[in-house]
Specification:
The chain is mainly α. It has helices at 4-16, 22-34, 40-52, 57-71, 78-84, 90-93, 99-107, 118-129, 135-147, 151-170, 177-183, 189-192, 198-206, 216-227, 234-246, 250-266. The chain is flat.
């Protein structure tokens, strides 16, 4: 996997820029392979080399994206894609794998991820939990969890449905933003500083599950993550940093702070 031609290319790069990092050298090696005509076996070797190369997460993401764009046929049919990800045939014959869901999953597919195809099927169950569940769809959902080749994942998806039904039955979705923020242990400053807007509140209310307030830090962590995808003014950045220090979960706050630092460094 390190032919003479690749060595000569990289040696020339090194002579031109001796300060090049190990991460950059390895990334360029993968990019070189992405320009070659390779066999399926060689693609499998490249995917394994990603694991063995001890790269940071950002570099792994870039390499995986390069290889996926080069070696995966995105014109694949819905039927072939469902088969690749081990969906039981009933997902299609019962109309439970609509085009919208197929296109969504095709959009975030990464080369080699079919080895953990249960993650795609689990996310498909999760997708259905955020649609309008008629009695007919609910029954199909239950049956599909029983047909899934991964029995443990199927059981988890069934439990998710039970929690969804209990939440719809016993949670008051007319709850105010202030009461919901208190339920999720948001420091008061989130509201007084305007850092918990209605859009974010409605988003979090939409995926709330009964009892999930026992892990309220996950809601606050997602709120920090949400802000990283908005327009970050200097004032908002300052508030974000202060809120990470005020959070009742110090470790989560530190993680959110590090995410901000990485984001700002990447977007300089």
């Amino acid at each position: 996997m390190y032919p003479d031609e690749l060595f000569r290319v990289q040696f020339a790069d090194y002579k031109a820029t001796p300060e090049i990092s190990r991460q950059q050298i390895i990334y360029k090696a993968f990019c070189w392979w992405a320009q070659q005509d390779v066999t399926t076996d060689r693609v499998d070797k490249l995917l394994r080399l990603i694991i063995y190369s001890n790269l940071d997460d950002d570099t792994v993401t870039l390499i995986t994206k390069e290889l996926t764009q080069r070696f995966f046929d995105f014109s694949i049919s819905k039927e072939a894609f469902a088969k690749l990800l081990d969906y039981p045939d009933e997902w299609l014959s019962w109309g439970m794998y609509p085009d919208e869901l197929f296109q969504l999953q095709l959009g975030y597919y990464e080369l080699g991820s079919e080895r953990s195809s249960e993650h795609y099927r689990y996310s498909a169950f999760y997708w259905w939990l955020h649609q309008s569940l008629t009695p007919e769809i609910t029954e199909k959902y239950r049956k599909l969890t029983q047909l899934d080749p991964d029995a443990l994942m199927g059981e988890a998806a069934r439990q998710d449905l039970v929690r969804k039904e209990l939440t719809q039955r016993f949670f008051d979705f007319s709850i105010s933003k202030e009461a919901f923020a208190k339920l999720m242990n948001y420091p008061d400053e989130w509201l007084s500083w305007g850092m918990y807007p209605d859009e974010l509140f409605q988003l979090q209310l939409g995926y709330y599950e009964l009892g999930s307030e026992s892990s309220s830090e996950s809601y606050r962590y997602r709120a920090f993550y949400w802000w990283l995808h908005q327009i970050l003014t200097p004032k908002i950045i300052e508030k974000y940093q202060k809120l990470t220090q005020l959070d009742p979960d110090a470790l989560m706050g530190k993680s959110a702070r590090q995410n901000l630092e990485k984001f700002l460094e990447k977007n300089r």
